[in-house]
Amino acid sequence: MIEYRVDKNPLYSETIKKMLRAHNLSHTGPVELEERHFYITENKKLLGALSVHFFWDWVTVGDVYYESLPMLRALIRAAWEHFKHKAVGIKFFTPVESRFQDFLESGFSAVATVRNVGGFDYYFADLNATSDDDGSIQVQSVSDFQQEQEYHTQLKQHTRSFNEHHGIKGMTDSVQIVAVEGETFVGGVQCDVYTNTMFITRLVVDPAYRKRDIGKTLVEWAVREAQKRKVDVVELGTTGFQGREFYEKQGFQVVHTRKDNPKGYDCHTMLRRL
Known about the structure:
Blueprint: E1 3-6, H1 10-28, E2 34-42, E3 45-55, E4 58-66, H2 69-83, E5 89-94, H3 97-105, E6 109-117, E7 120-127, E8 140-142, H4 149-165, E9 173-181, E10 184-194, E11 197-205, H5 214-228, E12 233-239, H6 244-249, E13 253-258, E14 267-273
Parallel strand pairs: 4-5, 11-12
Antiparallel strand pairs: 1-9, 2-3, 2-8, 3-4, 5-7, 6-7, 9-10, 10-11, 12-14, 13-14
């Protein structure tokens, strides 16, 4: 008999990660990951910074700070120059429309707007090429921001101030639900909880136990946990080799699709409103 429970056992956490990684690798083969940080300084003061990571053929924008649009453009150009030989593009999303407009003015193209997710509208933008750099703003680059701990600290402070100003709150909770048969782990789902939003980060079922509605039941448990927390939306990202059709059957709808993420596959952002 399959038993379901909320359980934060770290052994289950690692098993979920390993099972999903193995499934993904069976479709993508070995993948390259890279984290990179670009910054502009003057007299040890941080004037601009951009943290990104490369995964599944796309560069994703993380923390960003800039004192002017020319600085943002210089940071973006530096990132593209570093990754253009292997990346399909750079992707960015934000709930702050003014920041979205800054990225559009810096060469990005609007690709989607998703309304009312946890009380915010989210704006998605991609970049696949940049204009030439006149070289007037010098940008430095490191693979490990610990090399420049002072600048890393300044960037985090600027990010916190920006988020507080715009009412953006970080993760408030996490939930892990597992399915077990006796002592045998057969499936699990991991979720991060934000203000009015739950994000399903991983869902796995042991191949030997598929076709028994375990995945469906895990999603139902996750939705109930979201409802307990008064969450309005459950969100997730999935690809063609993961579970779009499965999630559609569970009431999720595709709100944004990015092609070649990874190459050869579509990546879908999906929502279920509660």
